[in-house]
Write a structure and sequence with these properties.
This protein is an alpha+beta fold. The protein has one domain. It has three helices and five strands. The protein has a five-stranded antiparallel beta sheet with strand order 1-5-4-3-2. It is globular, with a radius of gyration of 16 Å. About 20% of the residues are buried. Keywords: Signal.
Length: about 100
């Protein structure tokens, strides 16, 4: 139920600025989306990465455990890929462990 409410709020807020091509997914400029995630849900960026397609993928999480995954395209359009609740931070591998794993071949 909470998921439906969150998605409805995001869609309603972004609807006036979303393009027709992105109607199936809530999309807008990154500079419009980020303040909404913070003000409405209390979510702040906790991680990011670069996809093989050249998209920036960001994870936003609130202290209450809600989360949003945002995908930003090279043309500046950002789309909410998924969102939910009960986010749990497990930890991250150390630099040395990642380096060893990546170069184990």
């Amino acid at each position: 139920m909470l998921r439906c409410i969150r998605l409805a709020v995001i869609a309603l807020v972004l609807a006036p600025i979303a393009s027709a091509a992105a109607a199936a997914q809530p999309c807008a400029s990154r500079s419009d989306v980020i303040p909404l995630l913070k003000s409405i849900f209390g979510e702040l960026e906790t991680g990011l990465g670069l996809s093989n397609k050249g998209h920036v993928v960001e994870i936003f999480v609130s202290p209450a455990g809600t989360w949003t995954i945002l995908l930003s395209r090279p043309d500046g359009l950002s789309c909410i890929v998924d969102e939910g609740e009960a986010w749990t931070l497990i930890g991250s591998p150390s630099r040395d462990a990642r380096h060893l794993q990546l170069h184990a071949d």
